[in-house]
Amino acid sequence: PTALIQIAIRSTVDHKYEESCYIVDLLVLDSNSFTLLNTIFSELCRDENIIKILQGVRNDVIELCNSYPTYMGFRQWKSCLDTNAMFKVLNPETSQLVSLKNLVKKYLHADLIKAQQLSDWSIRPLTEEQCLYACCDAVVLLRLYDVMAHEAYCLQTNNHTEKDSSPSNDNSNNSNNSYDNTTTNSNPPPRDRSESTTNSNP
Question: Which of 20, 29, 162, 197 allows an S-S link to 8, with CB 3.0 to 4.6 Å?
């Protein structure tokens, strides 16, 4: 069964973005905790004002539903974006799925270290390295959304400009995005909705 759910959250506090990450260890929850989690997920997943960003959403949702068939909170998702779907919009010539590691390399210009992926996730408690690995997998989805949404915005703007002006007046927008563990230098289109990412199974 699915062992972990990682949730990275970005919210606006005093006009500044704040990010936090939570790890839900499904293997240690009792029935009361699962009932509470089901209620929370039902509200989160159905809230259209919260953008949910996932990698491989279809497989994750199917596995969650198969692992915990009596909990309906995992079954209804609204305002959900898959990074692979975004990649296909930006790269329509691509038909294959792209790994999270490769997306991070392409858009954030960073190497996502996956050494902990092969560690034993059945042993409790989880190590600090495992927890950091799990959180990183969720947080980078927020950063990917920043860069990919910005690129989509620029492409849309350029397309409109090309339609409304002659080639001599066309201006191209080049984005120079960099990634570190605290911030992203990209400037996505303005938004006033909270964002969250969920990941399951490191």
Answer: 197
